[in-house]
Amino acid sequence: MNEIAIRCKSIKKYYGPPENRVEALKGIDLDIFKGQLTLLVGPSGSGKTTLLSIFANILTPDEGQLWLLGKDTSKMSEKEKTNFCKDQLGIVFQSYFLVPSLNLADNVALPLLIDGISQKEAQKRAIEMLKRFHLDQRYLSSPTLLSKGQQQRVAIARAMIKDASIILCDEPTSSLDHTAGMEVMALLRNLAKDFSKAVLVVTHDHRIFECADRVVNIDDGQIIEDETV
């Protein structure tokens, strides 16, 4: 059995005032494992992005418990939780959020520079990470010169630069053609399998289901299906 990276019990999330509130998540129980690529799927408004945002420490659950790498987040101070998530979570968004005025190495190095790592050391590590993603020969290039698929690979490299144990991705293939999307998913699968990362991908993209180890279907704030592929 693979090690549990994320565990949530009875997670609920509400939006709106008490007299007219919407229950976005209705008591979610879910384990996400290291060494697996898990897809979280469902229609718009189903609650999947809300759940991902709770895992990413962007939102706080209104009820229930969340453990990240065995740590109960409810027992952490806000500062402890922020620092823990900053080091252990890598987040990949639908939009790449690359800085066009910086070259690839500097974009990937940003999390290290924010942590106070020297420019020289940060760039060295960034180039090593770009090599893993077959982009080291272009480390001085602007991201504006890359294809969308290449830009997404840079965004994944940045998410991995601190060797995060958990990779959370929000629609990483939605703006990519099939070939580029499958290349990105192959990289994510490689991170899960070869580096024992827990990779969770929120997606509407049925083309990539074949890449997953597991598909969790959520609808109306509830898990309706959990299938090993």
Write the layout of secondary structure elements.
Layout (H helix, E strand, L loop, with lengths): L3 E12 L6 E12 L3 E5 L6 H8 L7 E6 L2 E2 L5 H11 E4 L11 H11 L4 H14 L15 H13 L5 E5 L7 H18 L2 E5 L11 E6 L2 E7 L1
Tell me about this structure:
It is globular and about 55 Å long. The mean pLDDT is 95. The protein has 6 helices and 10 strands. The longest helix is centred in the last third of the chain and has 18 residues, at 178-195. With 229 residues, the protein is of the alpha/beta class. It starts with a strand and ends with a strand.
Descriptive terms for the model:
229 residues, alpha/beta, Rossmann fold, 6-stranded mixed sheet, 6 helices, 10 strands, 33% helix, 28% strand, globular
What's the gist of this structure?
This protein has six helices and ten strands, in the order E-E-E-H-E-E-H-E-H-H-H-E-H-E-E-E.
**Mean of the pLDDT scores?**
95
Q: What sequence of helices (H) and strands (E) makes up the elements?
A: EEEHEEHEHHHEHEEE
Question: What separation lies between the terminal Cα atoms?
Answer: 16 Å
Number of strands: 10
Number of helices: 6
CATH topology: Rossmann fold
The largest sheet has its strands arranged as 6-7-8-3-9-10
Quaternary structure = single chain
Number of domains: 1
CATH class: Alpha Beta
CATH H-level superfamily title:
P-loop containing nucleotide triphosphate hydrolases
Could you estimate the helical fraction of the residues in percent?
A: 25-40%
Strand content: 25-35%
Spans of 5+ residues with little confidence (pLDDT < 50)?
none
Shape: globular
Q: Largest sheet at a glance? A: 6 strands, mixed
- Radius of gyration over C-alpha positions, nearest whole angstrom: 18 Å
Structural class: alpha/beta
